[in-house]
């Protein structure tokens, strides 16, 4: 009896494979030592199975529990109660359970934990790849369950795998229906998700070299889909992120005098309403952005962006902020007024902020600016002549900017004359402020790549960009991009064209398909894969209660509680019945010959006059009984039974070519039998 | 209260089973006689899917919802697959051997399938029930994968002399995922005859010829005629060891010689005066076994039957059956 609870060898192997698979992607995020402990535990379990080691003693288990407690406390102190610490603790408990796994039920605990760990994997990423990987883990876990329930004498891993796949495939339709139909519930309680993943993308500080660092990465930043009919040139795609208006000589930052990002705080600061600060012209363009997790709160959009669903906060300088860091892919809808004027009346506080310069330094630039301003009459002419200066002199657009010393602006403008967009934006803004024109640096992304397979744009980290906004009397803030003056290709055709021969471009992603844009089929494959990912995101990842509601409404009109319940019941019924029929192969009905069917019909007729054929009673025994009970039927019944028996039993033994002849003979006797029927029917009437 | 309720439920269940599964020599399992409930592991699995679902709600993760639904779907399918693993399985009773009391009775059951189906990891046993609370049945395992039919012995301890009707047989499976347990309880009309439990005693009285009637005959170990070989027991005379067979590697065997004095023995009910019925039967049973081993001609007289002296396995069986059935009519 005890033996039946032991773990068979194939089941153990399946389980360990499932455990290793489920821990593998997690181990990247976990501290290294947890991975080491996990590997150690897996090896230990294998050695236990081979009889080389024993199960842990009671003492050791107590030590392990204490150790885990200490680790969890130190984790909470170090990184706080977050997803990462929870996930690594779960993993730790999980691998310790392995060496304690003695009985079949322990395996079920481990398999259940496998499913929980798979769920944790989805918290980090919901990409197509992750989904496929989790599907693999689920299949292996099912294989472990099957192997566990097979007789230990059977070692048929192929069959186990096939059965696991079969059950998974059969479970899929039901899963899809549940996914579509089961009512989604809003979160029960808010759980802040803290992950230790480093933030990516444009940040709220910009020093020389920061943006060029991003240009080395070919990671996706976000995807954009415009509503139909919108045609924008590459040069118009300025994805505005943050406004940096404080400069300390090295780094541009957001001014910290107002810490809150919220509208309420900025309104208190300005004492002027949001609507009064903007003037829009023309129709807005609408689009949807799917932002990859940045671990930062700010969003990107075309200036001047308005949040369609009113989910986000608007910053002082018309930036958009999410409520909390973006830890998962975020999809949002925006409406942008491409033609706009903002802050035509500039408040003093704002003017002071955007005129501020660090004390001392960069004298040559100051001198150059004052000289240039004196030679033209208006502020706008001055700005254009600075751009002309960049255009006409030997300035280079490159990722490998020389290192700069104390007076960064001076050295860049007059000595090195080579830099990336942040150098140009920074020095341009500095030159503006030097002569009393309010100016600020804006960071975000510029440009995009269109995906021909699905109608959307892809923006990569190497699209990161910095430019300037300058304030003119009566016009408000106007965008100036000094990089465009140096390298028009960058703005009109994109960064790939501009940096085609720069070895540092995308050097972090040496094997990224985007690097091989020149190779046709590879590039097509990259675009197609991205299109699949995009569709996946639109159809599956974004499927929430709102989308579900819309779908219901589109299909069934107004959504009522009764309708939802009816729909769910019907669909569940249909699916269960359908699945049931495929799983339970209903036995084929007994094939009856025409002669058999005829005989059974006669029996039914006889049953109506109380001559019921008993269970297991043969035709001859039945005939004899009828002859005894109802002599008037004897003749007809005897002849009929004789024919039937001869045809049915004697005829059956004949095989091969003779069968055809027999069949014809059967047909003629069948016709003869039919003539007997009225006699029987008549008897029934009299009887 | 709870206990009595449970008892009442069990009783009802037993009655229901008895009504719906009358004894039959051959039974094909179908939806009318297969029961399915989740196992403890199945409940754990469902609980885990609940956890995943709650996490999906809280973190608003679409694919975690999908995972939770997949787990539920897998569970539902495991119900169907467990059912499928028993459905259309045909059980029929096969011949059974008689046993001695306090030995394990082996009931042979034939399992067969239709060629399209597979039945794996089947467990057969006699469950404890209120009718037979102390069934000491061991579970037999089998697969019906490679061959169309399989014969399985299901063992249970024979505790009482006489006609032994096996309780209902339970066929159980947790295949394929172990989340559900599907079973059926069938009455295959399994019978076997239980002989009295042999109680050894010194059979010296036969040597003296003092018991029974005047024509009682005995045989005893002698030295005249070669009779056969038996295994060596420590203490035996080394002179009788068959050294030739030792040299052939057949182990130590002893040559046996007997003197045929008179080979007719009568076993009599009254030989064991002072014992009760079962004790008498047990001793008679022992005598029959011993005498049949040595090839004697023996007869038996018990109330209700007289069996003239004879020899051979058929005779032995006849006598043992008579002892087993004693008092049953």
TrEMBL record, chain A:
Entry protein name: Transglutaminase-like domain-containing protein
Gene3D superfamilies: 3.10.620.30
Domain called Transglutaminase-like: residue spans: 413-484
InterPro entries, sorted: Bact_TGase-like, Papain-like_cys_pep_sf, TgpA-like_C, TgpA_N, Transglutaminase-like
Keywords: Membrane, Transmembrane, Transmembrane helix
Keyword Transmembrane: yes
Chain segments annotated as transmembrane: 7-24, 30-48, 82-99, 106-124, 130-148, 169-190, 564-584
Domain of life: Bacteria
Pfam families (alphabetical): DUF4129, TgpA_N, Transglut_core
SUPFAM superfamilies found in the cross-reference section: Cysteine proteinases
């Amino acid at each position: 009896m005890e033996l039946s609870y032991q773990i068979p060898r194939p089941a153990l192997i399946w389980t360990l494979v499932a455990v290793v698979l489920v821990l593998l992607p997690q181990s990247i995020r976990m501290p290294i030592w947890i991975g080491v402990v996990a590997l150690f535990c897996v090896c230990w379990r294998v050695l236990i199975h081979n009889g080389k080691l024993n199960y842990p003693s009671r003492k050791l288990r107590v030590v392990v529990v204490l150790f885990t407690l200490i680790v969890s406390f130190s984790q909470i102190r170090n990184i706080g109660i977050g997803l990462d610490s929870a996930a690594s603790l779960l993993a730790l408990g999980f691998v310790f359970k392995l060496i304690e796994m003695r009985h079949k039920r322990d395996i079920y605990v481990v398999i259940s934990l496998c499913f929980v760990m798979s769920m944790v994997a989805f918290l980090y990423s919901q990409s197509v790849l992750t989904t496929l990987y989790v599907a693999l883990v689920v299949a292996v876990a099912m294989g472990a369950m099957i192997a566990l329930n097979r007789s230990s004498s059977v070692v048929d891993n192929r069959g186990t795998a096939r059965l696991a796949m079969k059950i998974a495939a059969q479970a899929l339709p039901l899963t899809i229906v549940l996914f579509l139909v089961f009512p989604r519930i809003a979160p029960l309680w808010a759980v802040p998700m803290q992950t230790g993943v480093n933030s990516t993308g444009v940040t709220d500080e910009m020093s020389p070299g920061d943006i060029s660092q991003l240009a080395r990465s070919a990671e996706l930043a976000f995807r954009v889909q415009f509503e139909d009919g919108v045609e924008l040139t590459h040069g118009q795609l300025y994805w505005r992120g943050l406004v940096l208006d404080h400069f300390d000589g090295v780094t541009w930052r957001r001014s910290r005098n107002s810490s809150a990002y919220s509208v309420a705080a900025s309104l208190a600061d300005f004492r002027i309403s949001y609507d009064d600060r903007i003037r829009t012209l023309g129709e807005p363009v609408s689009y949807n952005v799917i932002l990859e997790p940045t671990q930062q709160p700010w969003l990107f959009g075309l200036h001047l962006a308005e949040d369609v669903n009113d989910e986000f906060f608007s910053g002082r300088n018309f930036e958009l902020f999410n409520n909390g860091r973006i830890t998962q892919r975020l999809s949002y809808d925006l409406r942008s007024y491409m033609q706009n004027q903002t802050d035509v009346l500039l408040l003093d506080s704002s003017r002071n902020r955007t005129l501020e310069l660090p004390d001392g330094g960069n004298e040559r630039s100051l001198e150059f600016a004052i000289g240039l301003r004196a030679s033209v009459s208006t502020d706008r002419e001055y700005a254009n002549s600075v751009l002309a200066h960049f255009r006409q002199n030997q300035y280079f657009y490159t990722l490998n900017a020389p290192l700069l010393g104390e007076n960064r602006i001076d050295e860049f403008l007059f000595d090195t004359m080579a830099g990336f967009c942040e150098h140009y934006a920074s020095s341009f803004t500095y030159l503006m402020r030097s002569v009393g024109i309010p100016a600020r640096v804006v960071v975000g992304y510029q440009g995009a790549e269109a995906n021909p397979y699905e109608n959307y744009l892809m923006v990569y980290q190497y699209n990161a960009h910095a430019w300037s906004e300058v304030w003119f009397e009566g016009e408000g803030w106007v965008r100036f991009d000094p990089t465009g003056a140096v390298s028009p290709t960058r703005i009109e055709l994109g960064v790939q064209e501009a940096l085609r021969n720069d070895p540092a471009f995308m050097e972090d992603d040496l094997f990224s398909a985007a690097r091989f844009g020149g190779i046709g089929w590879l590039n097509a494959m990259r675009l197609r894969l991205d299109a699949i990912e995009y569709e996946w995101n639109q159809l599956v990842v974004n499927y929430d209660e709102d989308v579900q509601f819309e779908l219901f409404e589109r299909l069934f009109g107004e959504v009522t509680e009764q309708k939802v319940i009816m729909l769910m019941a019907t669909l569940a019924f249909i699916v269960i019945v359908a699945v049931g029929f495929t799983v339970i192969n209903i036995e084929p009905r007994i094939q009856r010959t025409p002669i058999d069917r005829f005989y059974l019909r006669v029996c039914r007729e006889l049953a109506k006059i109380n001559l019921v054929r008993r269970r297991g009673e043969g035709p001859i025994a039945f005939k004899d009984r009828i002859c005894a009970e109802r002599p008037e039927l004897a003749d007809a019944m005897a002849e009929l039974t004789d024919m039937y028996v001869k045809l049915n039993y004697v005829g059956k033994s004949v095989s091969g070519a003779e069968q055809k002849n027999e069949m014809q003979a059967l047909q003629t006797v069948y016709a003869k039998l039919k003539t007997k029927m009225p006699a029987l029917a008549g008897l029934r009437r009299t009887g | 209260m709870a206990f009595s309720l449970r008892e009442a439920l069990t009783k009802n269940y037993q009655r229901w089973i008895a009504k719906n599964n009358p004894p039959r020599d051959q039974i094909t399992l179908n939806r009318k006689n297969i029961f399915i409930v989740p196992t403890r592991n199945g409940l754990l699995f469902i609980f885990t899917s609940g956890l995943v679902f709650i996490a999906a709600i809280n973190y608003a993760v679409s694919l975690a919802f999908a995972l939770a639904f997949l787990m539920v779907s897998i569970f539902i399918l495991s119900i169907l697959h467990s059912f499928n693993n028993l459905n259309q399985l045909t059980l029929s009773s096969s011949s059974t051997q008689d046993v001695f009391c306090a030995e394990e009775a082996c009931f042979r059951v034939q399992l067969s399938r239709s060629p399209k189906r597979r039945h794996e990891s089947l467990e057969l046993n006699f469950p404890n029930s209120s009718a037979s609370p102390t069934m000491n049945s061991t579970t037999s395992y089998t697969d019906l994968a490679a061959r169309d039919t399989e014969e399985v012995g299901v063992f249970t301890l024979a505790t009482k002399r006489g006609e032994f009707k096996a309780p209902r047989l339970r066929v159980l499976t947790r295949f394929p995922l172990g989340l559900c347990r599907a079973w059926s309880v069938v009455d295959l009309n399994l019978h076997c005859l239980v002989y009295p439990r042999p109680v050894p005693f010194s059979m010296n009285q036969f040597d003296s010829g003092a018991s029974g009637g005047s024509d009682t005959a005995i045989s005893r170990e002698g030295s005249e005629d070669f009779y056969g070989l038996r295994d060596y027991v420590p203490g035996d005379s080394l002179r009788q060891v068959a050294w030739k067979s030792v040299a052939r590697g057949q182990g130590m065997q002893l040559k046996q010689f007997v003197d045929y004095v008179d080979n007719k023995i009568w076993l009599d009910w009254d030989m064991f005066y002072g014992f009760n019925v079962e004790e008498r039967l047990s001793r008679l049973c022992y005598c029959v076994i011993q005498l049949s081993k040595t090839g004697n001609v023996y007869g038996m007289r018990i109330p209700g039957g007289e069996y003239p002296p004879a020899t051979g396995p058929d005779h032995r069986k006849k006598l043992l059956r008579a002892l087993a059935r004693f008092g049953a009519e």
